[in-house]
Write a structure and sequence with these properties.
The chain is built from 13 helices and 18 strands. The protein is of the alpha/beta class.
Length: about 450
């Protein structure tokens, strides 16, 4: 079995710098290029990286005499993958995060999760809720290695909402309502909602996540309920707009989704129980859909196997599963702007690409599905406006002026989407630095093997 050759970016540079002035250059040759936008594969192309940006893309050869050469040996170069619904700091859900470990242990787990995302070829994530703001700051400042993080900060939830992880015996005033268990903010009324939204944005959130309806893996919120009043939602959206960014909402059914759209929410997460009429409205009003295919179609297709679910939670999972497939088909039919995000953590952490692959089984349109994890995802990320910390280049494409977030896969993803799985992702570069190299040719840059002890510790393959 192949061993992952992770390089901690701060410990050593991916390539030895050449004796030259200016940014170092890396020239990729003999690569087939899927640019994340067009549904074609450019064969035997070349790409020149300078510093942390893509300088040139060519259908033929390029000349860069001072560049370090990387022969792709016919592999497909594509943009680093983007997961739009991650929870980097959760191991086995919100309750374990709250009760079983302190912040030091949760931070250590998060560091492991970030390395795992990189090993799989995910160079950017939008974290959909948790106290990840300090970690995102550390990644951006080069203190710890990880994918680019667009953090939402703590969930915003009402009392009894999907992020209410309190005890049944809690009484009013028992808990710190600003941040409950470091998972989310329990807010009631527009004033509390405004304060929590501002608190997240103050610390670097790039967008705000709200719980607009009932959920499966939570105790106090029936699936059919709608959460937050229209006034509360509009107050949160107003703060996001004041910061030049947007709000995404956890919601399953028509009432919660339409209330969120009325308030100005721009992205719906899940959406599995809505009618076709709501899908049409989303299209008309430019509201994007974030799809979690594995959770809805696989995990919730067999909820009895989820041993830590109560009977009530298993029944809620069955309800979600009953509508998910039809909703996805309507979304494809009406050509919603769709992105994919796994909502996968714990035992499912190593399998993020499965969410994209499972959605392809429904869509049967490989180019459309690949865009949900590349250029479509990048488009939605731009909605964070001035809160976006990555302003130097573009994401989600192989294009001049784009960030050098690049993966090489062994195969053609337009013919076989399964080549985006970890074991066929042979090379990962993020921001011009290499985090994984399985290229066998002698001209590949020299790396320090991680070693079996480290691989075993991090659970890497």
């Amino acid at each position: 079995m192949k061993k992952s050759l992770f390089i901690i970016a701060l410990a050593c540079l991916a390539f030895t710098a050449n004796a030259q002035d200016g940014p170092r250059q890396v020239l990729f040759t003999n690569v087939n290029i899927y640019n994340g936008v067009d549904g074609v594969l450019v064969e035997n192309g070349s790409v020149l990286v300078e510093g942390n940006l893509i300088k040139q893309v060519s259908e033929g050869t390029l000349s860069a005499p001072d560049a370090f050469l990387v022969d792709g040996e016919g592999r497909t170069m594509m943009p680093g993958l983007i997961d739009m619904h991650s929870h980097l700091c959760f191991r086995n859900g919100m309750l374990e995060f709250r009760d079983d470990y302190d912040q030091m242990a949760n931070g250590a787990y998060t560091a492991r999760a970030m390395l795992d995302y990189l090993d799989q070829g995910f160079t950017t994530v939008r974290d959909a809720g948790c106290n990840i703001l300090g970690v995102a700051k550390a990644v951006n400042n080069g203190i710890v290695p990880g994918p680019r993080i667009f953090p939402s900060g703590g969930f915003l939830s009402q009392t009894g909402g999907h992020a209410d992880t309190g005890s049944f015996n809690d009484r009013i005033g028992d808990q710190d309502k600003l941040e409950q268990g470091r998972v989310g903010y329990i807010v009631d009324g527009a004033d509390e909602a405004i304060r929590a939204a501002r608190h997240n944005l103050r610390a670097g959130a790039t967008q705000i996540k709200i719980m607009a309806g009932g959920g499966v893996a939570s105790e106090f919120d029936p699936l059919h309920m709608t959460q937050f009043t229209a006034e509360e939602m509009k107050a949160i959206v107003g703060i996001a707009e004041d910061y030049g960014t947007y709000v995404l909402a956890h919601a399953y059914h028509d009432r919660s989704v339409n209330r969120a759209i009325d308030a100005g929410v721009k992205v719906i997460e899940h959406n599995f129980l809505v009618s076709e009429e709501t899908i049409v409205r989303m299209k008309q009003e430019g509201v994007a859909l974030s799809v979690q295919a594995v959770v809805a179609l696989v995990q919730f297709g067999d909820p009895d196997s989820i041993t830590f679910f109560s009977e009530d939670q298993k029944n809620k999972a069955k309800q979600v599963n009953s509508g998910a497939l039809q909703m996805m088909k309507w979304a494809i039919k009406h050509e919603l702007l769709m992105v994919t995000g796994g909502d996968m953590f714990g035992p499912d952490l190593p399998n993020q690409a499965d969410n994209v692959i499972k959605f392809q089984e429904v869509a049967e349109n490989v180019h459309l599905v690949l865009k949900t994890a590349t250029s479509n995802a990048a488009e939605v990320l731009t909605w964070s406006g001035g809160m976006n910390p990555y302003k130097e280049g573009t994401l989600g494409t192989i294009a001049e002026g784009g960030y050098a977030d690049i993966i090489l896969v062994d195969g053609n993803p337009l013919e076989d989407i399964t080549v985006i799985k970890r074991d066929t992702v042979d090379f990962v570069m993020k921001d011009g630095l290499v985090y994984k190299n399985w290229l066998p040719n002698e001209k590949a840059p020299a790396f320090q093997p991680a070693g079996p002890e480290r691989d075993a510790y991090f659970g890497l393959h």
